[in-house]
Every structure is written in structure tokens, then in C-alpha cells.
Specification:
The chain is built from 12 helices and 13 strands. The strands form 3 sheets. The protein has an 8-stranded parallel β-sheet, with helices on both faces. Strands 7-6-9 form a 3-stranded mixed β-sheet, with no helix packed on it. α2 packs across α12, α3 (54-61) packs across α4 and α4 (71-91) crosses α5 (107-124). It has 345 residues and is an alpha/beta fold. Helix content is 48%, strand content 17%. It folds into 2 domains: 6-279, TIM Barrel (Alpha-Beta Barrel); 282-345, no CATH class.
Length: 345
């Protein structure tokens, strides 16, 4: 089992389109959630993408650190990536390491990751991260594509992939709020995907596109999110016909904001070339739910250091030990991820 990047990652995405599966991309915020993700990959026997957001990186470094220059987010994500490199062989899992949702104002964060990535590549002969994501979807299409081309050039030299977003993912995640975005901007136009695809392809094939088809971040009741996966099919067909390609799915697509999506929606999107599904909100709940249920089960043992239903002098250390209730969170996180995973393959 190995760290997947460069040509191997490109081959994996191509195989995903042909065989009809998508790889779960899990946002992590701690060593505990990293371990839970790796453990799930081990049990499923499938590759997994572990990704760090700007806020996730900051939390790993420590919330007390001044992050006005993005330093905590940079160093936390680097520390998390290096931890995965150090430990993933013990889990025997194929892993892809990714950074998530870098808006224009956060570009110095990715710049910092790339600076460290160049050093890491020179020392080890392979990259620190498999890929980085730029989310310039709220900028003009021209700026989005031109900036993405600059970064794809840098990443290609380090055998890394780029993920971009065309069209806006609604809702709120990690401090980025798109809840007030006009509805039509949540649905990407095939012509825009085509323009991005053609211009990026001139530099490297190592890129994916998150095309919006009603996606949202956050928690929504069924029926309140209006997905239109046919947009993905239309984009693929537009490019195939325009360029006279044999491949019916020339673009490797990414599904952001799966909140409210049914299994049928996910499977339909995969059928149109989605190779990566982002998971965050539901996994946050799953982790907390494990801790919550642990607290409910052992509540009488968690009120003091001494004294429980077994006696006033009985110690409670084994119940309030963080390793006990954090592990409960990890198991719940893993069970949730495994349930989602089954509809991806």
C-alpha cells in the first residue's frame, strides 16, 4: 500500500471513471480523525483521500496561535500531512493527501504549503501533498482559470494535482458562507467547464473540476437541496462533441457539498464522471455522536474522579480518560464513513 500522487493518481481517477466508483475525501481536524479515516480505509481495503481545510490546519497547530498570516494553518496542515506519511504504512492503506477550499484570500496558505512541498520533494523525491484545491468560484471565470493555470504549472513540476471549482457550492463551511448566493450560480454551465478543461489541459492532465449542480455545504432536510446531476453529463457531452473525443467522460469531476444527497443522486453523479466525493459535515456529527452516546452510557461514572454506582470510593479514571471517549468518537466516525463508502464503489 502506498502514498498516491502524480501519474498513479491520474491512473486511479481514470480507472474510477471507467469502473464507476468515487473515492471518499474526508476532512480531518486532528490526529484522532486522521487515524479514524486511515482505519476505515484499512477495513474497506480501498484508497482514501484525507484533506485539510484552512481551519482544520489551524486547529491541528493550536487555536491559541496567531493565524493572521496563515502560519498556524500552514504549519498545522504540514504537520498533519507529515504524520500521514509517517504512519500510513502501519494501516496498509493507499492514501491521497489533499488541501481543501482555498479561496482567493487564502492563497498565501497554499503558497506556504507549496514552499514546504518544494523542500520535501527535493529531500524525498515525492511530494508532501498529492494535490491542492483552489476555490476561486466567486471570482470571474477568467481570473479563476488564469490563476489556476499558474498553480497547475507549479504543481505539475512537483508531480501534484490541482482541483478547481467552476460554479459555487452553496451553504457554509469552515468560515466561508455562500448561503446568500443567487440560485443560478449554483449550477455550472457546460461552456465554462469546457473552457477550464481546454486551457488547463494545455499544461497538464493532472487536474479535477468541481462543477456545481446544486451542491451545498451544511445540514439540510431532504427535499430542500435541488441537485441536477444532468449538468455533469451535459458538460461531459459538450466537451466530447466539441473536441470529437472517443472518451464519453473526458473530465474528472468532484462532488462537493453532499448534504441532502440521496444514494441515487450520488450514484448518478458517479456515472457522469465524479471520481471524488467530499465528506465533512456528516462526519463531524458522527464523531460527536460517538462521544455523546459514550457520555450517556457512562454518565454516572463521569461526574467525579471517585464515586459511582459501584461504590463511593470507586475510581472513574478509565471512564474519563480522553482515550476512552475519543475512541468512541473514532469508532462512530468510522462506522458513518463505512456506510457512505458502500454507495461509492
Amino acid at each position: 500500500m502506498s502514498f498516491i500522487y502524480g501519474k498513479k493518481l491520474q491512473e486511479l481517477f481514470q480507472r474510477a471513471k471507467i469502473e464507476g466508483f468515487a473515492i471518499p475525501a474526508v476532512n480531518v481536524t486532528s490526529i484522532s480523525t486522521i487515524n479514524a479515516a486511515l482505519e476505515t480505509g484499512k477495513e474497506m481495503g480501498k484508497p482514501i483521500i484525507i484533506q485539510f481545510s484552512h481551519g482544520g490546519g489551524q486547529f491541528i497547530a493550536g487555536k491559541s496561535i496567531d493565524n493572521s498570516n496563515h502560519q498556524a494553518s500552514i504549519q498545522g496542515a504540514i504537520a498533519g500531512a507529515k504524520y500521514i506519511h509517517q504512519i500510513h504504512d502501519l494501516y496498509g492503506v493507499d492514501v491521497i493527501i489533499h488541501s481543501d477550499h482555498c479561496a482567493k484570500k487564502l492563497l498565501p496558505w497554499v503558497d506556504g504549503l507549496l514552499l514546504e512541498g518544494e523542500k520535501f520533494y527535493q529531500e524525498n523525491g515525492y511530494p508532501l501533498f498529492s494535490s491542492h484545491m483552489l476555490d476561486l468560484s466567486t471570482e470571474t471565470l477568467l481570473e479563476n482559470i488564469n490563476t489556476s493555470k499558474q498553480y497547475l504549472t507549479k504543481l505539475s513540476n512537483l508531480e501534484m494535482h490541482l482541483e478547481i471549482e467552476i460554479g459555487i457550492t452553496g451553504g457554509e463551511e469552515d468560515g466561508v458562507n455562500n448561503e446568500g448566493i443567487e440560485n443560478d450560480k449554483l449550477y455550472t454551465q457546460p461552456q465554462d467547464v469546457d473552457q477550464a478543461f481546454q486551457e488547463l489541459s494545455q499544461i497538464s492532465p493532472n487536474f479535477t473540476i468541481a462543477a456545481s449542480f446544486g451542491n451545498v455545504h451544511g445540514v439540510y432536510a431532504p427535499g430542500n437541496v435541488h441537485y441536477k446531476p444532468i449538468i455533469l453529463k451535459n458538460s461531459q457531452s459538450f466537451i466530447q462533441n466539441k473536441l470529437n473525443l472517443v472518451d464519453t467522460k473526458p473530465v474528472s469531476l468532484v462532488f462537493h457539498g453532499g448534504s441532502g444527497a440521496t444514494e441515487n443522486i450520488v450514484r448518478e453523479a458517479i456515472g457522469y464522471g465524479v471520481v471524488k466525493l467530499n465528506l465533512d459535515t456528516d462526519q463531524q456529527w458522527a464523531y460527536w455522536d460517538g462521544v455523546r452516546k459514550y457520555n450517556q452510557k457512562f454518565e454516572p461514572y463521569l461526574q467525579s474522579q471517585l464515586g459511582n454506582p459501584e461504590g463511593d470510593d470507586k475510581p472513574n479514571k478509565k471512564y474519563y480518560d480522553p482515550r476512552a471517549w475519543l475512541r468512541a468518537g473514532e469508532i462512530s466516525f468510522k462506522d458513518s464513513l463505512k456506510a457512505i463508502w458502500k454507495c461509492l464503489f
